[in-house]
Amino acid sequence: MELTLASADSLQRYRLLTSLIAPRPIALVSTVDADGRGNLAPFSFFMMGGGKPPSLAFSPLYDRQRGPKDTLRNIEATGEFVVNVVTRRMAERVNQASFDYPPDVDEFDAAGFTREPSHLVRVPRVAESPAALECRLFQVVRHGDGPQAANYVIGEIVHVRVHDAALRDDGLFDTAGQALVARLGRDEWAELRAQDVFDLPRPSTG
Ligand SMILES: Cc1cc2nc3c(=O)[nH]c(=O)nc-3n(C[C@H](O)[C@H](O)[C@H](O)COP(=O)(O)O)c2cc1C
Predict the structure, then answer these.
(1) Burial grade of 75 (CB within 10 A; 0-12, 13-18, 19 or more)
(2) How much distance in Å is there from the Cα of 84 to the middle of ligand 1?
(3) Domain that holds residue 69
(4) Does residue 204 sit within a domain?
(5) What pLDDT, in 10s, does the model give residues 145-185?
(6) Is 200 part of a structural domain of the chain?
(7) What is the CA(164)–ligand 1 centre distance, in A?
(8) Measured from the CA of 94, which atom of ligand 1 is nearest?
(9) 96 touches ligand 1 (CB under 6 Å)
(10) 45 CA distance to ligand 1 middle (Å)
(11) Residue 107 domain-assigned (yes or no)
């Protein structure tokens, strides 16, 4: 199959690309608006960016009806957000948090998550998530201007909270043990299990 993207309709392109660029980790992003009202939404267009300074990026697309999503509006208003990692146990509630609630509805309450004060930012973390990354906005890079246009939110990670029970003996996060989930295409999700993991040391010679 060959597909030149300019000749495909936008839904077809979107569905194909989300099934190809997968599995994608899910950032459950908490924010507050200028008046301090909370917001929570999942984003799988999400990546680690760098180590020094530590950074990540995710992309809330422009919405057909609303333009910028609440998450983007809030981050541009406050300069802060928290990325909470998503486990299998959280998946149904995370999905519920993706419902298109009006801005005055706090998805913490609507989806059934617990607010926990953050360490360095005013945005609350999700208590149920085994790891939370507190971020300050570096830059928003827009690509396109209509529905589905990308808004790359680049954040500097300034503080990390990990549940003690989610740490392995080496002090690192127990990624597979925590059953982190990812998004595929369609309505498919994937759960990371210990048996899916294999070790591959980086080559020491060419
Ligand atoms: C698992 C999952 C991943 C999602 N990833 C994205 C994404 O990367 N970008 C995006 O714009 N919307 C994504 N969505 C949809 C948003 O979560 C949804 O539009 C949400 O209502 C946005 O909330 P907000 O307006 O409060 O920011 C995703 C939904 C789910 C369930």
Answers:
(1) buried
(2) 14
(3) 12-193
(4) no
(5) 999 999 999 999 999 999 999 999 999 999 999 999 999 99
(6) no
(7) 29
(8) 31
(9) no
(10) 9
(11) yes
